[in-house]
Specification:
By secondary structure, the chain is mainly α. Helices cover 58% and strands 4% of the residues. It is built from five helices and two strands.
């Protein structure tokens, strides 16, 4: 049965189902069939180094980009190089919100803020909050 969210200015319809959330069931099935996957659910120590290298590459790319005199070449460089590095930082912030770079939650948050710096729009802290709510309350209509 369709459900219209009263929290949205624009009316958006969601399809509500009475079946249980499939994510937990699928997780159990995968772990039962492939128990080695459990070993991947841990801190990956190389993540922080990849992020630091990415931040450095962003800064080097900016330094190079300002030397490009051709406007078309500038935009191609910005789109291809800057966009790729920027997107990988977005993904890194997602991983950091799951505490995958450090054992300490605070260290993951500090690294997320550092990874957020080259992006230019501060969002890492609020992303973490709402993204974790998304995971904790999958399938619920109101989660804020």
């Amino acid at each position: 049965m369709p459900y219209t969210s009263p929290t949205c200015m624009k009316r958006v319809q969601f399809d509500m189902v009475s079946t249980p959330d499939p994510h937990e069931k699928r997780r159990r099935e995968i772990l039962a069939e492939f128990p080695e996957v459990k070993s991947l659910m841990t801190v990956e120590p190389r993540t922080k180094y990849y992020i630091a290298i990415n931040i450095l590459l962003q800064l080097l790319a900016i330094m190079y980009a300002v030397t490009i005199n051709d406007i078309q070449a500038f935009f191609v460089f910005a789109y291809v190089v800057g966009g790729t590095l920027n997107h990988s930082l977005f993904l890194a912030i997602h991983e950091l919100s799951h505490n995958t770079a450090f054992k300490s939650i605070a260290h993951n948050q500090y690294m997320a803020i550092a990874a957020n710096l080259p992006i230019g729009i501060p969002y890492a802290s609020s992303f973490r909050r709402y993204h974790l709510q998304h995971h904790y309350r999958l399938g619920q209509v109101f989660f804020l």
